[in-house]
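Good morning C.,

I know you're traveling, so I'll keep this short. The sequence:
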Amino acid sequence: MEAQELKEIFPLTFSKGNKKLCELCQRPAHLQCNQCQVTYYCGVKHQQTDWVGIHQRICQFLVPLHAKTAFGLQKLSQAEMKLKKQELIEICKCEVQIKLSERKHLEALPAAHLCLRYSKEVYGPNTMELVPVYLLLAEANMGLGNLSLVREFLSQAELVVSENPDCGHGVHQQLCRNLGHLHALSGHLDAALHYFANDVYHSSEEYGLDSTCTCTGLFLLADVFDKQGNTAVVRSMYSEVAQVWHRLLQTQIQNPDTVSDSSYDKAQRVEQEKMLMSMLEFERKDSRTNPAQTAVVAHCLAMLAFLGEDDQKALGFGNTALQATASQLIPNHGLAESIHSLIQLVQHRQEVPPPGSDQSQGTSCTPSPTEQ
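The tokens, ready to paste straight into the viewer:
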């Protein structure tokens, strides 16, 4: 979708104290959105950034929120205004999460900042509702390498959490994970270990030991130990992570109706694949390669590819897993059977034509006798 047209504004025409500020940087504005006529920008660059980031989704939604500046519109009551702003906050959060899942960190910032601004207006400056927004802003800036801003937003989140001791394990888990990432990127490995260990604790309390969230925390913890050269600990943690993911993926294969097809879940699968590939590379480089671990990790990758409908990749990892099981001193027949079953599922899917195709409908290019 193309950006909206802009109209130049002249600050001197406005009454005293009624300055128009840029939607992104809050500096004096001289351009106005020509569609909603309530949003202003300091220049075309910020207008384009805001349009791609969030404004195209909420352009007309903003009009009633700024009704006092729009001619002919009745001002909303305080209760209606609050509900509208809460709805806008949720729209912005959703948009930020989608952008971050697609690794579009720069595009996520306009929606995140708008979400923070309205969250402060609705909930106040030091409330728990601000913590998820601070964490989203931290994640977006971390992806851009803006570590000073990451520290600032995480400090704000820490302050709010410290003033609300009754907040749940889920909030603590997200905060600890972000702090762990920050310290790992900054080279403070001992501090990163501390926060990732707390991440695992809060994850297990909130979601259980056999959860994707807890497994991811364990992987991140192992990754820091790997940077410190503690191979024995890494191997032990990777083994635990692989076993849990193996069980979770087998459950999804056996119950495909429970698998969501949202873009956020697809993004999680991409992240999971990256982690499993790191574990597989660790096994390949280790002089004491464990065929059983290689088989489990490769089978996980094959199942993940199958869920993502990448049959070629699923077959490739499936064959890798089979080779690893064959090289074990004590063969794991149960694992080998499970891998064979997955390969058969892939092959069957390749043989069955997709719904709606000519083959599936039994049509033929040969004309009927009446057509002849």
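Safe travels,
E.
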